[in-house]
């Protein structure tokens, strides 16, 4: 997927592959969505919202930016967690530049230092301090910038607020310096390589994460079983299975008199209609698959395939 070195002068187009990395909840998915201008990654305040590598594509004239939004790195507790961590570290090796996001405050944790170590071997990187809207004193931001520069792995340190869309546009210039001459890998009007079915599944998972209490949503997987346009109409029929790990969780996902499932499905349908540009008939069922997060076969079945190294 990454650019081979083309014959100079052969192309008038170029592309830059960017790994968006960092600890959970630092704003990777929010920044990806903002730069792409479309919702390609689901966003909640809970860690581990992004489970697989999601690609956002922005084409500006001859230059195509390909953002790989990776799972936040954390200590893995099961096979799904291990795969998520591997996805983040593998992405560093796959790209033209890594863009690592940081909070303005707090000590760098162990998983962040693991990524910094990986960057020492993994090609160029820039640092982005997000959430500048939370900075109390400009001197705090300067101190953080100095701390990141001192790590010796970042070409530059940028400061942005994704929430206020402040200084985010400057990242396009920053990333364009790492572009490689060659063909565009995606259609110029594409904004993601995720199939529509996967986008639907992710949106449903986002709503479950938003509406439910902490523990259960990580134990759910969403699989789209049917995605069919009705001939002669602007209506798509979508059937979805929501899998959880325990019978007790199933009851919670459905809710009293089906209220929770209805709430999740209704909010998801609104989002789906927006990005599909048509009406959606969404049917959701809840099923139990015990301990699927530790079952290799089910992880593959539910779409958490190991990324082949390119």
Automatic annotation (TrEMBL):
Extract the ranges annotated as region (G2).
Answer: 48-52
Gene Ontology MF terms in the entry:
GTP binding; GTPase activity; ribosomal small subunit binding; small ribosomal subunit rRNA binding
Tell me which domain of life the UniProt entry assigns to the organism this sequence originates from. Bacteria
Which membrane topology describes this protein?
A: Peripheral membrane protein
Q: Where is this region: G1?
A: 22-29
Region feature G3, mapped onto this chain: 69-72
> What ranges does the record give for the region G4, renumbered to this chain?
130-133
Physiological role: An essential GTPase that binds both GDP and GTP, with rapid nucleotide exchange. Plays a role in 16S rRNA processing and 30S ribosomal subunit biogenesis and possibly also in cell cycle regulation and energy metabolism.
Question: This chain belongs to which protein, by name?
Answer: GTPase Era
What is the scientific name of the source organism? Faecalibacterium prausnitzii
């Amino acid at each position: 997927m990454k650019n081979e070195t083309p014959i100079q002068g052969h192309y008038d187009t170029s592309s830059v592959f960017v790994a968006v990395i960092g600890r959970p909840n630092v704003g990777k998915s929010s920044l990806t969505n903002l730069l792409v201008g479309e919702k390609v990654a689901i966003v909640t305040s809970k860690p581990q919202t992004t489970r697989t590598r999601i690609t956002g594509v922005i084409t500006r004239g001859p230059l195509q930016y390909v953002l790989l939004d990776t799972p936040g790195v954390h200590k893995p507790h099961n096979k799904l967690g291990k795969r998520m961590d591997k996805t983040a570290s593998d992405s560093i090796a796959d790209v033209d530049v890594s863009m690592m996001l940081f909070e303005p405050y707090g000590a760098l944790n162990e998983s962040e230092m693991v990524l910094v170590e990986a960057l020492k071997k993994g090609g160029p990187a820039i640092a982005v301090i997000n959430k500048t809207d939370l900075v109390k004193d400009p001197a705090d931001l300067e101190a953080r910038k100095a701390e990141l520069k001192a790590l010796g792995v970042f070409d530059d340190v940028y400061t942005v607020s994704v929430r206020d869309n402040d200084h985010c546009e400057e990242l396009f210039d920053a990333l364009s310096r790492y572009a490689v001459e060659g063909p565009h890998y995606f259609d110029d009007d594409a904004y993601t390589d995720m199939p529509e079915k996967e986008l639907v599944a992710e949106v449903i998972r986002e709503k479950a994460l938003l509406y439910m209490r902490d523990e259960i949503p990580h134990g759910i997987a969403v699989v789209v079983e049917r995605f069919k346009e009705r001939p002669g109409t602007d209506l798509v029929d979508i059937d979805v299975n929501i899998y959880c790990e325990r019978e007790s969780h199933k009851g919670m996902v459905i809710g009293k008199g089906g209220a929770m499932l209805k709430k999740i499905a209704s909010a998801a349908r609104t989002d789906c209609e927006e990005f599909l540009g048509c009406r959606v008939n969404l049917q959701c069922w809840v099923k139990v698959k015990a301990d699927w997060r530790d079952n290799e076969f089910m992880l593959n079945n539910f779409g958490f395939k190991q990324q082949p190294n390119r």
